[in-house]
Design a protein that fits this description.
about 35% helix, endopeptidase fold (from Nostoc punctiforme), two-stranded antiparallel ribbon, about 270 residues, alpha+beta, globular
Length: about 270
């Protein structure tokens, strides 16, 4: 739970993120946030969604996959930007990445994201936080987003095998998430006791070598940047004093430290 001061800071940060989305002149964006602390693995962003303008009761909503603990299964969920940002482990420092797509690809993604039957067709019945990107056994939140992109940009017709065809399109298009290397074999066996982590969808060589491919925001953004060099990126971060905004693909330094050319907004 966040205290009142932290909630106020996050609400002001969310307003600045919405302003950046508005100022972009676009109607859809790939949006990612820091959440689960994975810094020990060199990972800043853990969760992505598709932000769409004017699609709900708020100016910008984020369509995303989330795990419904009470139901024990993944669901699709539309959430305002503020709610999207509140699901973070660290209320002191937070990061958001916005990727703005070329007009044609943006329009295709917007149509597919708002086509609820197709979006639901891409939703797996079982969740795994470390789902293998080229298996339909499980799915994590980012995997649903990248498969949605595949359906949109591959112009894939609807059908019961849509996930299989989306993954085939991704593989043929060069999507290859960077492996996450683990250096402790006990972690491999701990998966048997962690209900949201599974290993049985990963290739044998990955399980034996403790090197796993998982869809994460960084790999998704890299795929977009390689495929669409004209795509634009905005990164924002906040600490307890200020918000830093950077245009471009070079990440902000850890600790939310600004450099020349960055915009800085005091939080007071």
């Amino acid at each position: 739970m966040h205290d009142a001061r932290q909630q106020d800071r996050l609400l002001r940060f969310a307003a600045i993120v919405r302003d950046e989305l508005d100022d972009s002149g676009e109607e859809v964006a790939l949006i990612s946030r820091s959440g689960i602390d994975l810094a020990y693995l060199g990972i800043r962003y853990s969760h992505s969604g598709v932000s769409v303008k004017g699609a709900g009761d708020v100016p910008w909503s984020v369509r995303q996959l989330y795990y419904a603990c009470d139901e024990g299964r993944p669901r699709l969920y539309d959430q305002g930007v503020a709610g999207f940002l509140f699901n973070s482990d660290d209320a002191q420092v937070g990061y958001v990445s916005i990727v703005l797509l070329p007009r044609e690809e943006a329009a295709a993604l917007q149509r597919t994201a708002l086509d609820r039957p197709r979006a639901l067709r891409l939703l797996a019945g079982r969740y795994s936080a470390n789902a293998y990107p080229f298996s339909t056994r499980y799915q994590n939140c980012n995997q649903w987003v990248i498969e949605l992109m595949a359906a949109a940009w591959g112009r894939l017709d609807d059908g019961n095998d849509l996930r299989e065809r989306a993954q085939a399109w991704l593989a043929a298009s060069g999507y290859a998430p960077a492996p996450i290397d683990l250096d402790s074999h006990p972690l491999k066996f701990a998966a048997a006791f962690m209900p949201l982590v599974h290993l049985d969808d990963h290739p044998d060589e990955a399980r034996y070598g403790l090197s796993f491919q998982v869809s994460l925001p960084a790999s998704m953004e890299s795929f977009v940047h390689t495929r669409m060099p004209q795509a634009k990126r905005i990164e924002l971060c906040h600490d307890d004093r200020q918000v830093v905004i950077r245009q471009g693909w070079r990440p902000i330094d850890e600790g939310c430290r600004p450099e020349a050319g960055d915009r800085v907004i005091a939080l007071g």
